[in-house]
Amino acid sequence: MVEQRVLVIWCPDWPAIAAARQARQPSTAPVVVFTANRVRACTPAARAEGVRLGQRRRDAQSHCPALVVTAEDPDRDARLFEPVVQAVEAVVPGVEVLRPGLLACAVRGPRRYFGSEESAAEKIVDVVEALDVECRVGVADSLAVAVLAARRSRIVPDGESAAFCAPLPITELSAEPAISGPERAALTDLLIRLGLTSCGSFAALPEGKVATRFGADAVIAHHLARGRSHRGVSRRAIPADLTVEQSCDPPLERVDTAAFAARALAERFHEGLAGAGLACTRLTIRATLSGGQQMHRTWRCAQPLTPAATADRVRWQLDGWLTGRRAASGDQDGGDDGFSTGGIVGLVLEPVEAIDAGRVQFGLWGSDGKDDQRAGWAFARVQGLLGPESVLTPVRSGGRGPVDRIAWVPWGDERVPPRPVDRPWPGALPAPSPTRLARSGPDGSTEAVVLLDDRNRPVELGERGLLTATPRWIERSGHRHQVQAWAGPWLLDERWWAPDRRARRARLQLLYASGPALVLVADAPTGWSIEGIYD
User: Fold this and answer.
1) Any idea where the domains of the chain sit in the sequence?
2) For the whole model, what pTM was predicted?
């Protein structure tokens, strides 16, 4: 089979760039996206200050005190990436989204129109950078190799994919989630420990030995290390009746209603695929606007889509289209993109590429996403019986203490925090937050403790927000323990403009012998009490 050369557009650090745009920060601002208290993405300005991927939050802030801290938000990344996709699609037809920040298309058309692959790449870079977004372009004989080439801004000559991949570090096989599964990082770590540090050394192994020793995903990685494509040979003929449609009356104009429609449509879509014994790896989402305009977008995935993954992509895409419609309708000069004509009245999900469902790899505990789907049905049933407030979802919110940073919204509603997360919140307890909150008594009180100094005198909060002495002992439940370390206090002076409602408190992180680390809170009338526990 003759493979068609592929062009890939990669926007580095896209989650951080999207976070900066949502926070209305300039592209030169040091912005970082954190996941599980570690750096997931950062802007070039943050990287110039010494911030690195995987770094802990406090370490990153010690390198750059002016760091703008944001949380991971896939919805935001997809929504803000839609204008980039539209700009590229205006000059290159047939664009496919691999993930927010990564696009692909066949290179044949752009090469013939612009004269060469180099000219096509230059034109695309100019279009994207006109939006104040940095991008890199790569071209190769297959999609996976083109993704690796884009990370190095390379155009790999025809037939030289193996030579291009050979000197790359073995970690490149797991660097991009759009072309690798979640278990690929463990594979590359094992290969490094075995002394295989480059793609060329891994490609030199016999394919049969790789399959028997490392498993199915290792064979896919082995193909990539050799510059070959692992897709195409596994494609199945897709029956036309697997395309699902849904009319939207009234038209979809809100993100929360679009999310509900996406979930229902994804469930119908996967019911049809399961009946045909197929799993979708490439999906086209089509929408019809109330003015008659047609829009479509194709998403390509490294792993077969589950109902939840399909619902996510449909929700992201509809969010991007609806946000674009609102932006166009608010434009005083008007717009010709069609968004100003109304909401979405029709949705279509069409499988473009599918594989045998028997090849879908189950999760570690045997789950393929159906458990989540059944749980969602159960939640919806409970809400139908007892009301929307009967099933709640935690949402990260803004606030100074661990209790304030969690808000609850009805399951299925748009996950919008009641207080903005990106505000400064002076006096806020620094990360990480405690793993669990202290249990409150019947009257709402928490467990009281006493802090003592080295002379057995109580340690209290002074008038200037400082401790009256260094804590040496903590008395809890009638037992005394030696304090090993402490941090703080973080003073809270709330409602200072209303003397009758003024609240003056402080929080303290404390670690003592033979016990977990604690978050203590001091109130002027009640003294110290336990607010949170680090397990």
Assistant:
1) 1-155, 160-233, 240-357, 369-426, 436-534
2) 0.60
